[in-house]
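Practice problem 4.
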């Protein structure tokens, strides 16, 4: 593991030298892959369209959700670590250190509530307009219509979540604890990763989760397990901010990561290997192995999904050609959507839900599944262009934009 000079010289306390890190250009890979992940989320949230075959979940076990969390962690580590370093260097302004992440969490909360209301309105409208009562029960909506009072309280307290509109609450929780995790990552990144792994393993063994209320059960994106991939991203982002790599370039590690990606692909599609591996995992489960070790469960961020996501990130980050592709002008739309991540995510979610309704209402219109994702992606890009233009009109376009101020960056 490579560490920044400041952290290696002073293993117990980051010093002021770690604040004055070299100014580096915005990494095109982060914005491009965030934009790509957002488009994949839009596509996958309209089940049944042919573009699903091109999304990441078809090459292994992970999907755009894992990409969402790990890139959000990387972006947060880059953006927020300088303020945490200043506070650790005895800057008395604690709010300057924790405030940006908590303000971001509050913004995500307001967006989550807005998207939940939009989802309720869309499906209630569809049920009324098309006389289709099934729209009142899909995606956990039945609780709202059966028990509106408890559901409304649960909505504002995050205990009641609707399907396809349930990823932001977990990200909010992780942002709230983010300042402490970044501080720990600055002092002892390896121990921070180890602690996150221990919590992930414990949550899988004990089924630890935040409760749904009303409705029972737990959050779909279990914060106690999904924190692991977010913390991995945070530590990577902290190192990236100081011009170093947490996971060093290694031919051996590259071969292992690439080998696992090939193995995961074969596991999914080879008729003999897949059933054999799943049977062995089931046997381990019968012997008492934690559920997130021996399943593919998304809610618990099961081990096959976790390893696939981390291996994919390592392989892509190790290839220089990936950096050139992401920086190419052809990737500019993806980078733009990545920079306007929260806007694109919110609009894309609303479009995807509306697309679901149209595809149910008109199942025999064969061109509809082909067109809806393309139109949705185009609308998201147009919204990103408008937002970016408005931003530059108010603030001016800063050439060579950097992360040196520690200002928040958009989510994936």
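Answer key:
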């Amino acid at each position: 593991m490579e560490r920044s000079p400041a952290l290696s010289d002073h293993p117990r306390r980051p010093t002021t030298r770690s604040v004055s890190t070299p100014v580096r250009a915005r990494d095109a890979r982060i914005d491009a892959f965030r934009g790509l992940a957002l488009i994949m989320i839009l596509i996958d949230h309209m089940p049944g369209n042919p573009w699903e075959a091109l999304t990441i979940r078809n090459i292994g076990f992970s999907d755009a959700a894992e990409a969402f969390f790990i890139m959000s962690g990387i972006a947060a580590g880059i953006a927020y670590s300088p303020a945490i370093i200043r506070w650790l260097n005895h800057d008395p302004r604690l709010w300057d250190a924790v405030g940006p992440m908590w303000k971001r969490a509050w913004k995500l909360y307001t967006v989550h509530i807005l998207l939940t209301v939009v989802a309720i309105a869309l499906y209630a409208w569809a049920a009324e307009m098309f006389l289709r009562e099934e729209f009142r029960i899909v995606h956990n909506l039945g609780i709202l219509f059966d028990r509106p009072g408890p559901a409304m309280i649960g909505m504002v307290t995050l205990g009641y979540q609707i399907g396809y509109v349930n990823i932001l609450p977990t990200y909010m929780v992780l942002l709230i604890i983010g300042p402490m995790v970044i501080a720990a990552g600055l002092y002892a990144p390896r121990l921070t990763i180890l602690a996150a792994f221990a919590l992930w393993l414990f949550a899988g063994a004990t089924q630890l989760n935040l409760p749904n209320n009303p409705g029972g059960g737990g959050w779909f994106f279990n914060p106690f397990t999904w924190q692991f991939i977010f913390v991995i991203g945070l530590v990577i982002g902290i190192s990236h901010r100081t011009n170093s790599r947490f996971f060093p370039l290694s031919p051996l590690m590259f071969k292992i990561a690439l080998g696992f990606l090939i193995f995961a692909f074969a596991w999914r599609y080879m008729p003999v290997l897949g059933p054999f591996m799943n049977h062995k995992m089931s046997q381990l489960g019968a012997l008492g192995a934690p559920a997130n070790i021996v399943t593919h469960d998304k809610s618990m961020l099961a081990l096959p999904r976790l390893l696939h996501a981390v291996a994919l990130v390592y392989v892509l980050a190790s290839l220089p050609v990936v950096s050139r592709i992401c920086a190419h002008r052809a990737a500019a739309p993806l980078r733009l959507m990545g920079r306007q991540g929260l806007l694109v995510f919110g609009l894309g979610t609303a479009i995807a839900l509306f697309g679901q309704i149209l595809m149910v209402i008109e199942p025999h219109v064969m061109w509809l599944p082909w067109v809806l994702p393309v139109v949705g992606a185009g609308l998201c890009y147009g919204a990103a262009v408008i937002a970016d233009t408005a931003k530059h009109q108010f603030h001016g376009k800063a050439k060579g934009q950097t992360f040196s101020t520690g200002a928040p960056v958009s989510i994936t």
